[in-house]
Amino acid sequence: MKPQLTILAISLALAGCGGSGGSDTSASAAPTYTVSGTITAQNIDLQSQVCADINQNYMCDSGEPSSAANANGEFSITSTKKSILSVPLLAQVDTGIAANSTSGSASSYAYIAAPGLQKNAGNEINGISSLLAGYVADGLTVTEANSKLKAQLAKSGISISGDIQDDLSASELASLEQNIVSTIKAFKHSNRAFMLAQLSAKFDKSAADYVNGVLTNEEVVAFANFLEGELKAATALNDTGVIRYFSDIDDTQDVAEPQSSFPGQDAEYGFDKTELNTNTGNGFQFAKLDANGQVLADDAAEWSCVLDQRSGLIWESKTDDENSIQHKDRLLALELPGVVTPYDQDVDLATCKTKGDQVCTTQDYVEHINSINLCGKSDWRLPTFHEFYNLLDFGETETNSDGKAYGLTYKYFPHQTAGIDYTSYIGSVWNQSIIYNQYSNTAVDGGFYYNEIGTLGGDRGYISSLEIYSGDVDSSDNYDSYQFPARLVSVQGK
Question: Same domain, yes or no, for 433 and 493?
Answer without folding.
Answer: yes
